[in-house]
Design goal:
The complex is a heterodimer of chains A (about 260) and B (about 220).
Chain A: E1 9-17, E2 26-35, H1 41-54, E3 77-78, E4 81-82, E5 104-108, E6 117-119, E7 122-123, H2 126-135, H3 155-165, H4 172-176, H5 183-194, H6 203-216, H7 227-231, H8 239-254
Helix pairs in contact in A: 2-6, 3-5, 5-6, 5-8, 6-8
Chain B: H1 2-9, H2 11-36, H3 43-55, H4 58-86, H5 104-107, H6 109-126, E1 134-137, E2 140-143, H7 145-152, H8 156-183, H9 192-220
Antiparallel strand pairs in B: 1-2
Classes of the chains: A alpha+beta (about 260), B mainly alpha (about 220).
Chain lengths: ~260, ~220
């Protein structure tokens, strides 16, 4: 970080407030008077909450944890863009220098039937947990970490698997998709095991179980628009979705039950 | 059959059906477009081609196949569109921008499909089930479809409507062809960019071919 800015900006905010899944919800308007361009978006939200509390109002609830772009908690749709306007960035890594003095910023939660709003900007993403529980694991005992090169994995496969495993499960793909489809998340989770030898035994059964759970949770279908991948803070590729489709169809044809 | 129904119930199975039927129809469009290009050869070649098609009993099987493909594509796509809408009961107040945005074409594929359906019905009504003129070549009397086509494309409204409908079809297939391959599991860093180019070329060639006919007739076949 090269020094700090002394100038501050005025940002007009429209933030979503909602008491729970059954509440209709509404926007509150608030002007943050002294926003430093060096603040992260979440720091700006902290200041807004301080203002709200000081004026006797209820603060805005939002999820956050690591604040270093790796946990996938800080989910907000900022001016229509999940995690804000930048590519490969989570909300916590978005900085206020990206905005101009006097800008109006609209903040909404992830909107999907499968992600009901718990409060304000906090949504319930346990649908993702249930999809993982359906098959996003290897069920044999794997013991300690094997010696390097004990299981041969070509470098390209290892890289591909790693890129898929980079998914932090934030749900921005669902938030960005016009159909609120979870295809990118589910396919990344299917792929990172499908690309490695340890994942082969349960490969098709896993694809079948996870996709079935995905459908049950009420996510939409994939229209291959690519908005998910463009929004993904980890830039997960659409190749994963094609791989998931292959494995799911193969599973459908091969399963005996 | 039970297996088929089970796969079809899933979103991926449904999309697979939409993809396969879409690609099948895309193949038909190439054949149809190539066939009517005979107009640029001669009225006789055009009429004889049409006659060869309808006088072959296999036409009924082909037509039934096309209807099944068209209806399956439409029905499954409508069903998925409804499910997709239900997946986001509350819409965003601000639309995404830049790379994170979804294009208008991608958002309105269902509407394009319905407009194409309307077009196909009008198109069949105008030509296949339209006025029947006759012409005699070498002693054989066959339908003079060429005359009807010339007649119909004198109307600026019809040519304009045709142009718009085909433009919509062009956008639909440009997304559809590349998208179908992705749905069917074909995605590879080497081939996917190629498939996207092929999809664009396909749309340009097929739609360009179809549009060429009304535009040609309207501009150069006045009052015949």
């Amino acid at each position: 970080m090269g020094g700090t800015s002394t100038e501050t900006m005025k940002i007009k905010l429209k933030i979503w407030k909602q008491d729970g899944p059954s509440d209709q919800g509404h926007f509150i308007e608030h002007t943050a008077e002294t926003v430093s361009p060096d603040m992260s978006f979440l720091e700006m939200m902290d200041v807004v909450n301080e203002d709200l509390v000081n004026s006797g109002k209820e603060p805005v609830e939002f999820d956050h944890d690591c604040r270093e772009g790796i946990c996938g908690s800080c989910n907000m749709v900022i001016n229509g863009n999940p995690h804000g306007p930048d590519k490969a960035t989570t909300t916590c890594q978005l900085h206020m220098r990206r905005f101009k003095d006097g800008d109006t910023v609209v903040v909404e939660p992830w909107r999907a039937k499968a992600f009901p709003v718990i409060k304000d900007l906090v949504v319930d993403r346990s649908a993702f947990d249930r999809i993982m529980q359906a098959g996003g694991y290897v069920s044999v005992s794997t013991g300690n970490a094997p010696d390097a090169n004990a299981i041969p994995v070509p470098k390209v496969d290892a890289d591909e698997a790693f890129m898929s495993a980079a998914c932090i499960g934030c749900g921005a793909c669902v938030a960005a998709c016009k159909n609120a489809s979870a295809s990118l998340f589910v396919s990344a989770k299917i792929s990172h095991l499908a690309l490695l030898p340890q994942g082969q035994a349960e490969r098709l059964e896993r694809a079948h179980a996870m996709v079935t759970q995905m459908d049950e949770e009420g996510f939409g279908a994939c229209t291959n628009t690519g908005a998910c991948s463009a929004t993904c803070p980890k830039e997960i590729s659409l190749e994963n979705i094609a791989r998931m489709n292959r494995d799911f169809l193969k599973a459908g044809l091969q399963r005996r039950k | 059959m039970e297996l088929f129904m089970r796969i079809m119930k899933s979103t991926i199975g449904g999309k697979t059906l939409v993809g396969i039927t879409g690609l099948s129809f895309a193949l038909f469009l190439v054949a149809h477009m190539a066939g009517i290009m005979l107009m640029f050869v001669s009225a006789e070649a055009y009429n004889k081609y049409g006659h060869a098609l309808i006088s072959n009993p296999a036409i009924y099987i082909a037509e039934a196949g096309l209807i099944v493909i068209f209806v399956a594509h439409l029905a499954k796509a409508i069903q998925l569109t409804i499910k997709n809408n239900q997946a986001r009961p509350q819409k965003y107040h601000v639309a995404a921008s830049g790379e994170k945005a979804t294009t208008a074409v991608q958002k309105t594929l269902w509407a394009q499909g319905l407009l194409i359906l309307v077009f196909v019905i009008l198109h069949l009504n105008t030509f296949k089930f339209g006025t029947i003129y006759y012409v005699t070549y070498d002693g054989e009397t066959i339908r003079d479809l060429h005359r009807l086509v010339i007649e119909v494309f004198q109307s600026p409204a019809y040519v304009g409507g045709y142009f718009v409908a085909l433009l919509i079809l062009g956008f639909h297939v440009k997304h559809g062809v590349a998208s179908a391959f992705q749905t069917l599991g074909v995605n590879h860093p080497k081939y996917t960019p190629m498939l996207k180019t092929i999809s664009l070329l396909y749309a340009l060639v097929v739609v360009g071919g179809f549009i060429a006919q009304p535009v040609y007739v309207f501009l150069f076949h006045k009052g015949s």
